[in-house]
Design brief:
By secondary structure, the protein is of the alpha+beta class. The protein contains four helices and seven strands.
């Protein structure tokens, strides 16, 4: 079973060591060159961690800015062996989030095809694209 819990500093340290390489590249792209390990803790205020309760493995860390409805998510390599479980959980969690927020939005990295596929599966609408980014 997957569960959402408040992110701790320990979770962030684990994420730093186990982040999917494409997610790490996306962080650098979207922050103007700042790698994950140099982001300050303020980036992660009110973040939530998705864990697999069968073994307490961290699958992702993410959050929503409640003022702008910008949603973000960084995944770990552990997600590769739990894709179906994660997709099913995401669908349920998205319904809950959309009851609270009228819409969610962000920018993504074109090269992160796994994120694009996941967003398409969740019926996200990609509003426009450029050479490196897509907007939803």
């Amino acid at each position: 079973m997957l569960k959402l819990i408040p992110t701790t500093l320990e979770h962030l340290l684990i994420l730093q060591k186990t982040i999917r390489p494409m997610d790490a590249e996306e962080v650098i792209m979207l922050t103007g060159g700042i790698p994950l390990e140099r982001l300050t803790i303020s980036y992660f205020v009110d973040a939530q961690t998705i864990i697999d309760t069968t073994d307490d493995t961290i699958l992702a860390v993410g959050g929503i800015n409640s003022e702008t409805n910008v949603i973000w998510l960084l995944t770990t390599t552990a997600i590769e062996t739990r894709k179906i479980k994660f997709l099913r959980y995401s669908k349920v969690k998205l319904k809950e989030l959309l009851q609270k927020h009228k819409f969610l939005q962000n920018i993504g990295y074109q090269k992160n095809t796994q994120h694009i596929q996941w967003l398409e599966w969740l019926n996200a609408i990609i509003t426009h694209q450029d050479n490196k980014l897509f907007y939803f």
